[in-house]
Design brief:
Elements: E1 2-7, H1 15-25, E2 31-36, H2 42-51, E3 56-59, E4 73-74, H3 76-81, E5 86-90, E6 93-97, H4 100-111, E7 122-126, H5 130-141, E8 146-150, H6 154-161, E9 173-174, H7 176-181, E10 188-191, E11 214-217, H8 226-233, E12 237-239, H9 241-257, H10 267-274
Parallel strand pairs: 1-2, 1-3, 4-6, 7-8, 7-10, 8-9, 10-11, 11-12
Antiparallel strand pairs: 3-5, 5-6
Helix pairs in contact: 1-9, 4-5, 4-9
The structure holds 2'-monophosphoadenosine-5'-diphosphate (ATR).
The site of 2'-monophosphoadenosine-5'-diphosphate has 14 residues, from helix 5.
Organism: Paraliobacillus ryukyuensis
Keywords: Amino-acid biosynthesis, Aromatic amino acid biosynthesis, NADP, Oxidoreductase
Function: Involved in the biosynthesis of the chorismate, which leads to the biosynthesis of aromatic amino acids. Catalyzes the reversible NADPH linked reduction of 3-dehydroshikimate (DHSA) to yield shikimate (SA).
Length: 275
Amino acid sequence: MKLGLVGNPIKHSLSPWIHKQFLQQVKQQGDYHLFETEENQFIATVAQLKQKKLTGFNITVPFKQKIIAHLDGLDANAEQIGAVNTVVNENGRWIGYNTDGLGYLEALMDAYSFLFSDNQKRVLVIGAGGAARGIFYTLCQHKFQTVDIANRTMNKAMELKLLNKSKVTKTTCLSFEEAEKQLGQYDLIVQTTSVGMNEDKKVLALDQLTKDTVVSDIVYQPLITTFLAEAQKRGAYIHQGHMMLLYQAKLAFQNWTNREVNVSPLLEDFEQQIK
Ligand code: ATR
């Protein structure tokens, strides 16, 4: 089975390691290659992958939207989100999927199932960039009571809000100041900006955070960001970014192979690699 990843930069990607473990789990032969591509070489790279008849590939920054024009079809999720992270060769037709949001949700369900016990839960998404899209869309599909957005730039939050197609879930766009004041009312807070990635910084103040809130950060380097460390100190449950990375890979692998794989046997070694 031939698999791969297209993006830039991807030299330090952990995906080859993850998929190698999944291949071993299902006892399949295969490789997962990195195709690091400049913008002006993108079309040629995609043509090359199709020619090589890959089973499928992942697609990451900065090509998650650009790939759409080169596919034969999209699944409903990817179409709504407007971005693709997984391409599957379905009998010669190249179909795009987005496993980012569903990967996030499945990881969250496995760790904190109580968030899914009723549909009264209130969620805050911090950030409105590319990484927020799949997560926000999927949370709204899941019928939480509210999924609010806090972002530095208000019109980007308003644009993201348009992805809420749910008749049940309400969304309010907030400034960071407004969000900081009402942090105590949320059951789940998801940090999706790049703030805190390899730096000792957090995107907003957590003074009003209440105990027992679940706080997620999609940044996985470091494993415990300043944001999560502060949340933990205040008695919150934390949900780390590397779990989303593993679960989006699990769902991508399942799309390629139709075989169920398990994340937990990988976890300890995976954390060692990130440290
Ligand atoms: P990605 O695709 O990784 O999400 P992006 O589309 O550039 O990257 O979005 C980055 C997100 O991080 C945005 O929500 C951005 O806020 P703006 O919409 O106001 O630009 C947010 N962000 C980045 N740097 C930030 C900072 N220093 N403080 C607050 N928010 C920041």
